[in-house]
Amino acid sequence: MNSHTESPFMMSWLTSLELEARTLLEELDTHPKARRLFDGSIDKNSYVHYLIQTYHYARWTTPLMAEAGRRMKRLGMHPRLGNLLLQKSDEERGHERWLLADLKNLGWSAERVERQMPSPAVTAYVAWNRFTSRSGRPEAFLGTAYVLEYLSVHRASQSVERMLAANTIPNIRKAVTFLKAHGTEDEKHVAELTALLSPLVEREEQAALLLSARTTRVLYLGLFTEETYKNAAHLS
Ligand SMILES: [Fe+2]
Ligand SMILES: [Fe+2]
């Protein structure tokens, strides 16, 4: 590919990737439940629901990303992307424990959290990323990561500030570890990811990332559509 055609094409694929993430922000901002996480008016049951469902997907991030990275290396695919997947897998290690700690401070033991079913959206998200990591295009997980990290950069710190200011959830100060850490960490992660993805010119590689970005956008909304913990306050 020559430089005459390369530049606009690269621009358009990265713009498309960012568009998926920005569209998710817009969709969440107008979603009746998600917007309440961002504006701090969310109640305890809904916040617990969000943390539990996030736990059900975050627990798979480290093993599946590692699998994707190792598979890329085994297949001799794009080594920088394979290494990035392994690096990100390490970065994500233990984040599910932050969710369990936050939930514990809201009266939910780890055992009780484990007994809650993942929602259909979370089940589909895990299954999709397991598929791409194990037998699809393994670099696709970076499209998933891009959307989730972009979301953290733009909404995680804001959510924490506003929930603390609203102070409607008892003990909320001790239940925002996961969001707090991601708001600060993911800024550099998105910058690093964007820098590494900029030079990608292979259309199939781009398409794989874009498809996972879109899948994540669609499924992430499903995190907020089911309320299955109506009696959380009484059970805790
Ligand atoms: Fe994380
Ligand atoms: Fe990150």
In words, what does this structure look like?
- The chain has 236 residues and is mainly α.
- Helices cover 75% and strands 0% of the residues.
- It contains 11 helices and no strands.
- The model is unreliable at 1-6 and 230-236 (pLDDT under 50).
- Bound molecules: fe (ii) ion (2 copies).
Short description:
The protein contains eleven helices and no strands. It has 236 residues and is mainly alpha-helical. The protein is globular and about 50 Å long.
> How does the overall form come out from the CA principal axes?
globular
Structural domains: how many: 1
For the termini, the CA-CA separation is: 60 Å
From the helix content, strand content and strand pairing, which structural class follows? mainly alpha
At the fourth level of CATH, the homologous superfamily is Heme oxygenase-like
Low-pLDDT residue spans: 1-6, 230-236
SSE succession? HHHHHHHHHHH
Which CATH class?
A: Mainly Alpha
The number of helical segments is 11
Helix content: over 70%
SSE blueprint and pairings:
Layout: H1 3-29, H2 34-39, H3 44-74, H4 79-91, H5 95-104, H6 110-115, H7 120-134, H8 141-166, H9 177-197, H10 203-221, H11 232-235
Helix pairs in contact: 1-8, 1-10, 3-4, 3-5, 3-7, 7-10, 8-9, 8-10
The chain binds fe (ii) ion (2 copies).
Main features:
single chain, 236 residues, mainly alpha, Heme Oxygenase, Chain A, 75% helix, 0% strand, disordered N terminus, binds fe (ii) ion
